[in-house]
Amino acid sequence: MSRTSTLLRGTAQRLASAVAVLWGAATLAFVTLQLIPGDPVDILLGPATTASPAVRAEIRRQYGFNQPVYLQYLRYLGRLAHGDLGQSYQLQRPVTSLISGQLGPTVQLSLAALLVAVVLAVVSAVATAGRGPLPRAITTAWELIAVSTPSYWTGIVLLTVFSFQLHVFPVAGAQDFASLVLPAVTLALPVAGVLAQVLRESLEAALGQPFTVTARSRGLSRTAVLLRHTLRHAAVPLVTLTGWLSGSLLGGAVLVETVFGRPGIGSLVLQAITSRDMPVVIGVVLLTAAVFLVISTVVDLLYTVIDPRLRSW
Questions:
Q1: What is the C-alpha R_g of the chain?
Q2: How far apart are CA 310 and CA 301, in angstroms?
Q3: What are phi and psi of 94, to 5 degrees?
């Protein structure tokens, strides 16, 4: 089979997998919406409504709630196929518009947290891999504390020290770079702790390989061997775990954005869950599934860059 055919077949398989994942997420979200007790018309009208039965029937007809479930499901999939996520029950605005308006701050926070986490993990693992028990005990202690401490508690401690006591960073908002520092560090610390532990284990395993002994016999220092040879060899598990944890950053952003009073998807979905605005919740679920697909694709591409032996074309 030619290289082009192999590449096209791999692309087709990945697209089919992506469509299947999005269809599964959309179907699960629709089923969840149907199983939630209560009348969606009550959510649309609010708790203090005095709407007449005629008005309620008109709303039910307008939104298609009076149709059989399978017809509602087909209409729902048809809208999704055209990029229409529906309309918010509470805000009476398209869900696509609401999400796109709040996506920027969340993407900014997630990328900053991911960068901080990877840098902290690489520095901690490279500095202590193969070292004596004392440096390893110190780094292991901070990693365990970072992993086991809830993000909201870390955020409150950072706010108390750096905002209320030292007045270094602003308390809330997303107006400038300084307002991004504490939320990014709060979101990054648990991820950095996990990544550092995995990377250190991989580095120490690679240090025992014959190519490391050969490099040291040529006169390279330990740091040079780690940075030039061992780090790349140990990068595959780091990339795998980073991709998996990157998707979880969206979930962590819900708490962090609330603690620091930042706009974003987290505050939007929290408000939607509180008011049972299910079209918005479903839109965020589909967005999260799409983000996981993109990250998975990027991780697979990085595998072939790190280790050319993994290329199948």
A1: 24
A2: 10
A3: -60, 140
Cα 36 from Cα 280, distance rounded (Å): 15
Find, among 205, 197, 194, 193, the residue nearest to 230 by Cα.
205
pLDDT digits (tens, 9 = 90+) for 101-121: 888 888 888 889 889 988 998
DSSP 8-state symbol, 309: G
Q: Where are the alpha helices (DSSP H) in 129-234?
A: 133-148, 151-158, 178-207, 210-217, 222-225, 231-233
Axis crossing angle, helix 278-306 with helix 235-259, rounded to the nearest 10: 150
| Alpha-carbon gap, residue 182 to 155, rounded angstroms | 7
Give CA–CA dist 70/78, Å, rounded: 12
Amino acid, res. 241: L
- Is residue 312 scored above 80 in pLDDT? no
Question: Could you say which DSSP state residue 87 is in?
Answer: B
Task: Return the sign of the alpha-carbon dihedral for residues 43, 44, 50, 53.
Answer: negative
pTM above 0.85, yes or no: no
Copy the structure tokens of residue 79.
């809208």
Phi then psi for residue 87, to 5 deg, are -125, 140
Q: Is 312 exposed, middle or buried (0-12, 13-18, 19+ CB in 10 A)?
A: exposed
Q: Quick check: 103 and 266 in contact, CB under 8 A?
A: no
